TrEMBL record:
This is COASY synthase. Keywords: ATP-binding, Nucleotide-binding. The keyword ATP-binding applies. It comes from the Eukaryota. PROSITE patterns: DPCK (PS51219). One of its GO terms (molecular function) is dephospho-CoA kinase activity. The gene is Coasy. It comes from Baryphthengus martii (Rufous motmot). It holds the Pfam family CoaE. InterPro entries: Depp_CoAkinase, P-loop_NTPase, Rossmann-like_a/b/a_fold. GO terms for biological process: coenzyme A biosynthetic process.
Amino acid sequence: DKVLAELIEPYELRVAKLREFLEDVKPSLHYDIVPLVDPYGPSVTDPDLQCLVVSEETRRGGEAVNKKRLENGLPELSLHEILLLKDPDHSQNEEEKISSSSLRQRLLGTLLRPPRRAPALPLRPYVIGLTGGTGSGKTSIAKRLGHLGAFLIDADKLGHAVYVPGGPAYEQVVAAFGAEILNEDRTINRKVLGAKVFGSQEQLKILTDIVWPEMARMFKEQIREAAAQGK
């Protein structure tokens, strides 16, 4: 349940930082860094442990460890509680204590990575897929990218264009689902079509097998147009 789990540093890097910290504090200290694969780790099975360092927030966790140790026939650990430093710079949506979660909140949007090299793909145009649920801000982000010079391809518009009379999928869709999906002006009534397919995986697959290849072809045409414009 960590905030912004995707920004948690790799395990190897965290181990290296911890080792550096321990060596700074006391170079002669003997220690083992153990990866935790469950909430308890070795704290409930190692008979040589004597003390557990906790904070005011994690004292209950320490008490749970001791309960487990007693169940396992091991002596209780001495719980040494430390105080947590307050973060003077925390914002309204961050924790008051100095924490890695707050740090990741501040890093959001700042970790830029170079494009992944894919030898099979041309370097230009560089294609970005912009996805998200309703109201997630796709339109706003697309406008910002457009102002930066991006060539925009609207999947919704292509999805409508593929169905229009004379469009690449029109005849196939009508042939597959019948004239009852047509309005009086011979356009496809998408609500009627939707009612036919969305309750049936089989019918939906028939539709997507017709429409998606045509949309993919239209996308590729648009990408070639972007390349021709030097976008």
